[in-house]
Design brief:
7-stranded antiparallel β-sheet; 15% strand; TIM Barrel; Arc Repressor Mutant, subunit A; alpha/beta; 8-stranded parallel β-sheet
């Protein structure tokens, strides 16, 4: 049986398994059925996320080890909750070699290592290239031999048997690895990485022995009843995702399996033996239906005024992806091109195809249409390369061709780095829509579109996860909800932001627009958090500064802009006043999207802490500690009869979250269908409502516009004549037509249960 709902916990050294066990009773009271944890296997030292696994054979000692897992399991079983675990099959942490036994053995013994087949290494160059040295031609002079190991400052490397005589440099030259300048990584590295992170080396889980070795501990948890669900990280990096999921399903036949598959709008999840995705597709739909699509032209005009340019999203994405393919992932491109040495122009053509690929990757033979789309667009942009493009696509269509296999792994990385980590920070006309799994060029989602997507999800993937926030989202769910209000007040926003950019200018106007939107969306925010976000955003954008080559002058100007926000009394007051003006309608949007996500088809996940207002920004900001004691105390007060107002405490959101989750857990039969419910009267377009089979969710859309047009007036909902109980206020209603003004008098959302 799939979970009724999940609650994501970022288990980490500062919040280990024992601390997680201590909040299980609160999660049970909240109403979830399953705790959904970050990865639990042994990770790199001081890892804050767990996606850099170094030892697949043990529970991370930094999290409490097997004793901690057993304590958590005991607490969950006592509360009748299940566990969903996050696993990382694509890559392993290799940045601290001595902590990863298999990688250490590969470095020591090379191709003779029992683990040489575990990692996706191109052995044709003879040695594994490790880009770790300082940008100094004499960096190897800092090598030393100590305790039978090769040392470079605090980094440790093994010495192969019989090769330890002589100077440190002489010993180094005899090893199965070569330490080189860190700047050479993107162009010369010869092992597959997770995106461009050299500390994460690709695993060959397509090998049954590697699968068995890396999944034995995880499957033990499943077989012993410690875990009932599995969340699979980054399937797009795998050589053959379908084969992998078939193998995982065979090993865990009754597990609820969801995959971190990011679907582009309109893209279908492949027919894998899984329950669905981790919910980015649902997130795009829920966020979008609370945005007014009618003001898109205002933001186009404003963006052109602020930046002095008119750049289409499609062209920006293409250019960003092409840059990533030819620079950031140049080593991976070279490995691809080496498979077609007879075609001199192969590197340029492969990069162009990747830049034009419309989705993250194909899964041949499925997805050949996406390849055809990429070929057509690449030919349009580079007509002089048509002959080469045709030669390559002939091979890229063949599922058995090594070029086709590796190209599929390549395009996903190009998309992720080019779009999520670059274009999202450069195309900033309306950043509420710049989110993973979303198309920022699609300004909003209509009510009819939302109903279509929801019904389709119920029919095809009824047990998929739905989300509003994850550890990878660019902005917290309530930041996006408040920013959606800007689409209702484009004139007001235009007036203030044009004044602010003149008062505190930045050489990169697109980045400036991003920062002003984020500032009002997350306000009040500390100086330190906004400073950290501003620098990260600027480096991701890569226009004024970058991770590889930070521009201190630009970053100083950027920090001065942030300081001015806090130090200039007039500017600080104006920002606070504007943020205050959009906060109440933002609360309405927050409650609306929370209700919709928790009640729509699928298994809803609540990201840690988001049962109250959450104005987090991109990681690591969204991994900050959560005050569970405050949430526990507030939930107790609500259960004692407090009917909280919609205010800065966020208690109304906790009320909505807990009541929906409890209802889903207690009466799952009410959530088995889907039927749109339409309003009539003065303001029907401001209602989003649907019947799940005995429970009707009602949410307010576009609250500013609703207020401008005089409120609900005679707007009514057509029900079936039964008596209904509204869950949040415990009010009874009856009749065929229900006045929306009466129903939404206390809260901008309602949940009706048929009596």
């Amino acid at each position: 049986m799939p979970p009724r709902s999940t609650y994501r916990i970022q288990v980490r050294p500062e919040f280990p398994l024992t601390a997680t066990a201590e909040i299980v009773d609160y999660l049970a009271d909240l109403g979830v059925s399953h705790l959904y944890s970050a990865p639990l296997l042994s990770a790199a030292p001081e890892s804050q996320h767990g996606y850099d696994v170094v030892d697949h054979a043990q529970v991370n000692p930094a999290l409490g080890g097997v004793d901690g897992l057993n304590a958590l399991s005991g607490a969950l079983k006592s509360a009748n909750l299940g566990l969903v675990v996050d696993i990382v099959p694509n890559h392993a942490g290799v940045g601290v070699p001595h902590t990863n036994p298999s990688w250490w053995d590969v470095l020591k013994n090379g191709q003779d290592s029992a683990f040489s087949g575990h990692y996706d290494v191109d052995w044709s160059r003879g040695r594994i290239l490790l880009p770790v040295l300082a940008d100094d031609p004499d960096a190897l002079d800092d090598l030393r031999i100590e305790d039978g190991e090769l040392r470079y400052f605090d980094k440790r490397y093994p010495i192969a048997d019989g090769t330890g005589e002589g100077t440190a440099r002489e010993v180094h030259d005899r090893q199965h690895y070569e330490l080189v300048n860190w700047t050479r990584g993107d162009r010369e590295i010869n092992y597959r990485r997770f995106f461009a992170i050299t500390d994460l080396a690709g695993l060959r889980v397509e090998d049954p022995d590697v699968f068995a070795a890396t999944h034995a501990e995880i499957l033990r948890w499943y077989n012993e009843g410690l875990a009932e669900g599995i969340r699979v990280d980054h399937p797009d990096g795998l050589r053959n995702p379908a084969e992998y999921f078939n193998r995982l399903r065979d090993a865990a036949p009754n597990a609820w399996i969801v995959v971190e598959k990011i679907l582009e709008p309109g893209e279908r999840l492949p027919d894998w033996p899984v329950a669905g995705t981790t919910g980015y597709d649902a997130m795009a739909e829920v966020n979008g239906v609370f945005v007014d699509p009618g003001t898109e032209a205002f933001f186009d005009t404003l963006d052109h005024h602020l930046t002095g340019a008119t750049t289409s999203w499609q062209d920006l994405v293409h250019d960003a992806k092409l840059h990533v393919a030819t620079n950031v992932l140049a080593a991976e491109l070279a490995r691809l091109a080496a498979l077609v040495p007879e075609i001199e122009a192969a590197p340029r053509a492969l990069a162009e195809l990747a830049a034009c690929f419309p989705v993250y990757r194909s899964y041949l033979p499925a997805g050949s249409r996406d390849l055809a789309t990429a070929r057509s667009e690449a030919g349009r942009r580079r007509p002089q390369m048509i002959t080469v493009l045709d030669q390559l696509t002939t091979r890229l269509r063949n599922p058995a061709d090594e070029l086709a296999i590796r190209f599929q792994q390549f395009t996903g990385a190009v998309m992720a780095k080019g779009v999520e980590d670059n274009a999202f920070y450069r195309w900033t006309r309306f950043v509420a829509r710049n989110e993973v799994g979303n198309d920022p060029a699609k300004f909003g989602v209509t009510v009819d579109e939302f109903h279509h997507y929801a019904a389709e999800r119920l029919a095809e993937w009824p047990d998929t996860m739905t989300s509003l926030a994850t550890h990878d989202t660019k902005r917290g769910e309530d930041v996006r909800a408040r920013l959606a209000v800007l689409a209702e007040v484009p004139g007001d926003w235009t007036e203030v932001v044009r004044r602010w950019v003149r008062f505190a200018p930045l050489p990169d106007p697109a980045l400036a627009h991003l920062l002003w939107q984020v500032t009002v969306g997350a306000w009040p925010i500390s100086r330190e958090r906004l400073q950290a976000y501003a620098v990260k955003a600027a480096r991701e954008a890569g226009t004024g500064t970058s991770w590889l080559s930070p521009d201190e002058g630009f970053e100083t100007t950027l920090r001065e802009l942030v300081d001015r926000i806090f130090d200039d009394p007039a500017l600080h007051r104006e920002i606070a006043d504007f943020a205050a003006s959009i906060t109440p309608p933002g609360w309405s949007n927050s409650l609306g999207q929370k209700l919709v996500q928790l009640t729509m088809p699928g298994v809803p996940d609540v990201y840690q802490g988001t049962e109250l207002w959450d104005h987090s920004l991109v990681d690591p900001d969204n991994r900050r500690p959560v005050d569970f004691a405050a949430r526990r105390e507030l939930l107790g007060r609500i259960d004692d009869g407090l009917l909280p107002p919609v205010d800065e405490t966020g208690a109304a959101k906790l009320l909505v979250t807990s009541r929906v989750l409890r209802l889903r857990r207690q009466r799952p039969e009410l959530f088995t269908g889907y039927r749109p419910v339409f309003a009539e009267g003065r303001a029907p377009d401001h209602v989003l409502a649907f019947d799940r089979g005995g429970v009707v969710a009602v949410a307010t859309r576009l609250p500013v516009g609703l207020s401008r047009h005089g409120g609900w007036g005679d707007t009514t909902l057509s029900l079936d004549g039964h008596s209904w109980t509204e869950v949040f206020t415990n009010t009874s209603y009856g009749g065929n037509r229900l006045a929306v003004a009466e129903l939404l008098h206390t809260y901008p959302v309602a949940l009706l249960v048929k009596e």
